Task: structure prediction
Amino acid sequence: MKQIVKIASIALVLILAAGLLFAGGRSDSGAGSPATGGGGASAAVSVDSLPRKETLYFNGILWDQVNSWNPYSVGGNAFGLDSNNARQLIYETLFIYDLLTGTLKPQLGTSYAWNGQTLTVQLNRNVKFWDGKPMTSADVVNSYQLQKTYATAASSWWPYIDSVTAQGDYTVVIRANPSNFNPKHIESSISRLYITQKAEMDKVVARIGSAPTALGQWTNMTADQLIETQSGTGPYKPYLSDETKAVLQRVDSYWGVSLYGKLPPAKYVAHAIYKDNATGDAAFRAAEVDISQQFISSVWTMFNVNVSTFLPQAPYYFPGVIPMIIFNTKDPRLAEAAVRRAIAMALDYDTIGKNAMSGYTAPMVASLMLPTPAEQALIDVNALKPYQWSGNLQEAIAAANKVLDDAGWVKGADGIRAKGGVKLSGIRAECPQGWSDWNASLEVVAQAGKQIGIDIQTYFPIATVWTQDLQNGTFDIIMNSPGGIGIASPWNRAYAAISSADLPPEGTPNPIGNNGRWINQEATDIITQIATETDAAKLKQLWTRLNIIYLQEVPVAGLMYRPGVFHTVNETVWTGYPKMNDGSGVPPTLCIDGYGIKGLYNLRNK
Result:
């Protein structure tokens, strides 16, 4: 299975489609006569003869041919935005998200500051596009305006923005929509919106016309699949691309030398498109791949002097998202909190963690929060304990049965509970076919049902059917990972999982979140308040109360903690990758995502 992080498409939070960055590696058919990558004079290099000690190889990010380098593509863009972060190789953002600290670090911008509902951003005066022209506030303003003019994935920020204007050449002012103030969304935009060159994009607009979808569908790719514009600012640009690979070449005139002190050591960045995980794993084991984002079952069996993960022992990877089961609260079988809570209580979390996730998760503790210092500091851990269920499975199952008994759900002769003419049978637990870790997790959910008198059957359709069922509400129990990773975390997780603030009318598709359509006005009001609250003590009270409501009502139930990316490295050729507590402060995001880009500059040949 091609294991990727499965994140809901949440329009109002800009959770984009899967992170397709580049493809590349080795081609048996060779390459034609590639153009140089903007890094100065260079002899043509075929993909078969890339110098190994100058090339950094990836796998697990891309599973099909690159079809666009468009930084504003709604889907299929191959330059960097994934569901959690903004990769910084071809295009760049104003700021970059640091997963370890939960803060934004400078990139194209040097600083930002709020004054009431106005955010002022200072730009780095050293930034230049590939053609040598400086980046100014006009380029930033235009990059935002394009998302207002056209319907792109980034258009979802504009309901929260009143205006974006320039004050001189190197200051940008973003005024929030006073009737829909949400600083989390605006801060997300400065860390996720790619900045392009206004002069180049004006030419593109003149060519593509004014149709709302024109920019999202525009392909800035030449016949040989290189980039056709000079609007990037990043350290790499496309060099070779076909159905088996893509290669990026370093831009030796890259402005970022002034920020990072040097160019990234790898002259080429490449990614092979493997047919399946097994092929990719074999290449990684053979050191044909340096950084793997694939799900590797029992990764510790690969460990040697060269192969390692960010964490040296379980859970091996840094947690980033919480895959959950979502209950359809409009279904009379699942409308009562006692039923939902009992199912969550009876789950064998240890089996999910060890078998479905190969141990890549910390022990599950019922709440909306990740087990990271930053998120745990937002809640009163002791205040939640009375509402959380036991970690002992048999005790938890006994308690779950008591919850159902007390609520009047009585077991019939067949062992299935019923009340008031509603029988807890024929409930389907759904996720896509072939997502093996999720499939295994839902088998545990079905087993939990048997322990407490609820008939739950697994259902694994193709991914497109799962997406339709999720958004149309045509499911009983469905698995998904609400929210994503970014400066708005964990707010975006709570919003996407349980807020009813922006639910579309019943009977219409729901790409926003809260797909189970659970309505609790207090919880929604708290989530809305958290978005603008700045007092730390008050925030802790709000987050604690929200988690108590969640634990009482259980509209969704977290099954495991999952990394945003599977950062596994082979140091046969390159070394210097970030490790936990190594003093570098670089997060495990593949040396390319957000602040993880800093890790690219720490690499050296072994």
